[in-house]
Amino acid sequence: MRRWNGWGDESISVPLPKGATEFLAQAIGKPTPLPDARLEDVLTKVPPSRLPDHPLIIKDPERRIRHARGQSFPDWLALRSGNIGTFPDGVAFPEDSQQVRELLAFAKANGIAVIPYGGGTSVVGHINPQEDNRPILTIDMGRINRLLDLDEQSLLATFGAGAAGPDIEAQLRAHGYTLGHYPQSFEYSTLGGWVATRSSGQQSLYYGRIERLFAGGIMETPQGPVSLPPFPASAAGPDLREMVLGSEGRLGILTEITVRIQPLPQRETFHVLFFPDWQTGLERVRHALRTGLRLSMLRLSNHTETTTFLNLGGGRTTLSILEKLLSFRGARGEKCMLTFAVSGTKRLHKQTIRNAFRLFRPSAGRTVNRILGKKWMENRFRSAYLRNTLWEMGYGIDTLETATTWNQVDHLMKGIEDAICSAFSAKGQKALVFSHLSHLYPQGSSIYTTYLFPVASTYEKTLRQWAQAKNAASNVIVAQRATISHHHGIGIDHRPYLVREKGKLGLDAIASVCKSFDPQGIMNPGKLVE
Ligand SMILES: Cc1cc2nc3c(=O)[nH]c(=O)nc-3n(C[C@H](O)[C@H](O)[C@H](O)COP(=O)(O)OP(=O)(O)OC[C@H]3O[C@@H](n4cnc5c(N)ncnc54)[C@H](O)[C@@H]3O)c2cc1C
User: Which H or E run includes 482?
Assistant: First the structure.
């Protein structure tokens, strides 16, 4: 069963090794955890539903709690404290496009606000009901999750939009194909959610972001269905598919999605290696991109992230052996970790590995890199469970991400980290702040920053502390004309900063597109644009 107030399946917990607890205590102190609310108590807070009856709508309070919040840090605090605020008035689980159409017609006729819901893994408030005089209906797409068509000649597969990562890969792998889209939330996030938020998977370097994988589909809107044929390319004016990407449930509900697929790679391996310092890593990675090295993933961690990863991941003995080995090979003081993957035919794989080692000239040899690479791959989705472990120890954790051109990457990364550290230190608090570059392009890169901090003495103070850090970092991002999000989207948390990026005219244009598909403004109100 999925946790109602944390990440993942209740039966899975990922403990930290003993040395990790000491590492954190030394870096940011040993906090007192905040008390968690019990589900039984939150159930008593759910108000009566305002929705008229409909055979597809469930008004059960527990379902409404489980669909009230996503996975952002404010969501986390709301769920853990039990102060959730607004709940959806009901949840529907349609089984096909026809039922979605029926629900939208019902909503339109009765003045009901609608929230399309994929896996509920949004980290920016996308699926949270906002206070509204209208009743609020959440439409959970989870039952529309089957492979509907496989066109092997065209390398296209059509799925129900509620298919989650494991549903998609299992159904494609049975035929020898893959989509290759692996966000860290893979276990729960869905195809519809990926398209609606413009998500990016860990191996985007090879398979591409969701924009490259999304070929077409069907979107049900309050004004009727919109069909998006999977043309390989088209010059027939602006592409409607571009409007749907990143639309965050504001235009309608995607019910069927056609994606571009690939044959499963014959061979795929993950590797971890170390550079003596950040600048060396940066130069070698940029050089590798220019030479067109066919890697499927490239992730360069800065020194603090490298140290944190090694301390949180390994036991004391492993860490000490590894440190000795790295030091012997020249990766001492400011070492930085590079994680990369190679996918493809056996021949291409062999060639690429050879070229990668020639270009990267790492400090530590191949033995270390395969062991750590394998470990990284095995834990690629499990590390999200550490949020639960850390919370129970009294630590909050959040991440933020942006993208900018290479001439700004270094400066911006430092600016974001400094802004977060200063926001915490202004309140006499410490934070462990670190970053990596995870989606790299010849022109620039995403920057992904994690901040880990002791909770304050109350939930309210912890939220204020988080908001100050988030706001400080977001202001640095927009001031440097970087994007407010490379892959998490806008939702409600990034909305205040969007005008700096798009301008008022740009935002008005987006709002008028929403209005064309949804003149009454019933679709996911308050998200993306006012
Ligand atoms: C631990 C963790 C790790 C993450 N890692 C990544 C990562 O590596 N890469 C990344 O890009 N993101 C990541 N995310 C963020 C999140 O998983 C993505 O934004 C994801 O795309 C959301 O998908 P979802 O199905 O959960 O959508 P939801 O959270 O349910 O919804 C997100 C938005 O999409 C809309 N929507 C959902 N389904 C439909 C539909 N069928 N039609 C129309 N609109 C729809 C919703 O209305 C909402 O606005 C992570 C989140 C967590 C908690």
Answer: none
**Cβ neighbours of residue 315 under 8 Å, at least 6 residues apart?**
17, 18, 19
Task: Please return the burial class of 494, using the count of CB atoms within 10 Å of its CB with bins 0-12, 13-18 and 19+.
Answer: buried
For residue 528, which atom of ligand 1 is closest to its CA?
Answer: 49
Report phi then psi at 286, rounded to 5: -65, -40
**Ligand 1 center–CA 119 separation, angstroms:** 7
Whose Cα sits closest to atom 50 in ligand 1?
A: 185
Helix (H) or strand (E) holding 239: none
Using the structure block, give the residue that is written with the tokens 């088209």.
Answer: 234
Cβ neighbours for 239, distance < 8 A, ≥ 6 positions apart: none
Q: Which residue minimizes the CA distance to atom 9 of ligand 1?
A: 183
Give tens-digit pLDDT for 130-155.
999 999 999 999 999 999 999 999 99
Q: For ligand 1, which residues put their CB under 6 angstroms from it?
A: 7, 70-71, 115-123, 126-127, 141, 161, 183-185, 189-190, 192-194, 196-197, 199-200, 248-249, 253-254, 384, 487-489, 524, 527
If DSSP codes are grouped into helix, strand and coil, which group holds residue 77? helix
pLDDT value at 364 more than 60: no
How far is 317 from 136, CA to CA, in rounded Å? Answer: 54
**How far apart (Å, rounded) are the C-alpha atoms in residues 492 and 490?**
6
Residue 346 alpha carbon to ligand 1 centre in Å:
34
Confidence of residue 333 (pLDDT cuts 50, 70, 90): confident
